[in-house]
Amino acid sequence: MIFSNKLILWYLQNKRDLPWRKTKNPYHVWLSEIILQQTRVAQGLDYYLKFIDAFPTVNHLANAEESTVLKLWQGLGYYSRARNLHFSAKYIVNELNGEFPKTYKEIVKLKGVGDYTASAIASMCFNESTAVVDGNVYRVLSRYFGIDTPINSSAGIKEFKALAQSLIDDSQSGTFNQAIMDFGAIQCKPKKPLCLFCPFADSCVAFQKNKIDLLPVKEKKLKIKNRYFNFLVIKTADHKTILKERKGKGIWQGLYQFPLLESEKSIDKNDLISSEMFNEMFPNEVSISLFNKKEVVHKLSHQHLHTQFWIIELNHQKDANIDWKAIENYPVPVLISNFLEEYLS
């Protein structure tokens, strides 16, 4: 209890003023947690406010078109979060009569909700004593207790979950969970943590043994895959273009993109013209120019997308049915959104 008492005291003096902390509405907390899964608070806050404004209740979200949800999510990345959010909202409304589940075991069944998110909602909204473990918590616990078990290993995940659960204050589990997350974000930061002003400095193993920069430990990352994207940006004489919705599985599922030619390496204009896809789309002569003289490298967790945008101008293209004036209404990956912002400016 000494650890939790000291932590909560720190939290009461230093906690961040965030809108989802002013309510026990599980819909609001759920939305904030999904947004913050792969996003910093500074960026996620604006998206949270936009979503609450557009969809004030789970019913509003459930009744929205998926393309509307994806458009509002645009720029946050990891779009499966938005699709799962929408799917689960419809499930809550249609299968649970609009009642948000109230226990960890029921909350974790929602699509896109894992142990961390379910623990956060259950503790903050329903006072269930379930410990959260996210990147901040891993860092705090590994440093304080001097644990070098890799946090992204099966053994590490189990060890840190059990440790966090043993430390939680059952009488104020939601406050404890928010306290340890804020402590990791504000005090025990990844780089340049505020050790000299830390209430745990006299008992922190990493500080005492000068291992702050060595903890937490992560197993080696997967090898990054390089992919080469060539988007064909069509512009007809009557200002029409082609945008296609990405089908099937994938991070951009449900988003729209220009026709895509993926190559094994960077290509030039001659390579483009000689490709089978290009000749099928453009049997007649067209005007071709490369918009970005330097490749745009879009970095995802396990792959880097080396991207070129080719401007194709011609009189007519049978599949070009989207007016350029309406193009900003379509949800697109941030890679294409950034191109459009520059191209249309």
UniProtKB/TrEMBL annotation:
GO molecular function: purine-specific mismatch base pair DNA N-glycosylase activity
Cofactor note: Binds 1 [4Fe-4S] cluster.
Family: Belongs to the Nth/MutY family.
Protein species of origin: Polaribacter marinivivus
EC number(s) per entry: 3.2.2.31
Domain HhH-GPD: 35-186
Function of the molecule: Adenine glycosylase active on G-A mispairs. MutY also corrects error-prone DNA synthesis past GO lesions which are due to the oxidatively damaged form of guanine: 7,8-dihydro-8-oxoguanine (8-oxo-dGTP).
Cofactors demanded by this protein: [4Fe-4S] cluster
Catalytic activities: Hydrolyzes free adenine bases from 7,8-dihydro-8-oxoguanine:adenine mismatched double-stranded DNA, leaving an apurinic site
Name of the gene: mutY
This protein's name: Adenine DNA glycosylase
NCBIfam families: mutY
Keywords noted in UniProt: 4Fe-4S, DNA damage, DNA repair, Glycosidase, Hydrolase, Iron, Iron-sulfur, Metal-binding
Pfam families: HHH, HhH-GPD, NUDIX_4
